[in-house]
Design brief:
By secondary structure, the chain is mainly beta. The chain contains 2 helices and 10 strands, in the order E-E-E-H-E-E-E-E-E-E-H-E. The strands form 3 sheets. The protein has a 5-stranded antiparallel beta sheet with strand order 4-9-8-7-6, with no helix packed on it.
């Protein structure tokens, strides 16, 4: 396991994850397409919010199962609790400070067809 430290752009929200990065995920649902993030998964016991809980803004839509978190100051999407795995965290790989762009680009990517998940029309 490797310890990865993450933060938003302004640094108000800081977190860390312990994980072995074996891959990343990209989803085509409406919010993931617009934020264009590459996500890495961490189990709840591998994720720690170090500071900034009061600075996080939560966004939910559609089924209101997924919980998307953004920094209320700089607006950066930091992580979310996925609808298909609400017990886990999906972390924006570009927020991980000790992970280079080349390392992110080298990760095997799983493409999720979130647009086709059976949900209400406004959750796409």
């Amino acid at each position: 396991m490797t310890l990865y430290h993450g933060s938003c752009h302004c640094g108000r929200v800081q977190f860390e994850i312990d994980t072995d990065l074996k891959g990343a995920g990209v989803c085509n649902c409406s919010i993931c397409t617009r934020r264009n993030a590459v996500m890495v998964r961490a189990q709840a016991d591998e994720f720690r919010l170090l500071q900034g809980a009061d600075d996080l803004v939560e966004y939910q839509f559609g089924s209101r199962t997924a919980r998307h978190y953004f920094c209320g100051t700089c607006g950066i999407y930091t992580f979310h609790r996925p609808r298909v795995a609400p017990e886990a965290y999906a972390v924006n790989a570009f927020c991980l400070e000790n992970l280079t762009r080349a390392e992110i680009d080298a990760l095997p990517v799983t493409r999720y067809d979130g647009r086709s998940f059976p949900v209400p029309d406004d959750d796409r």
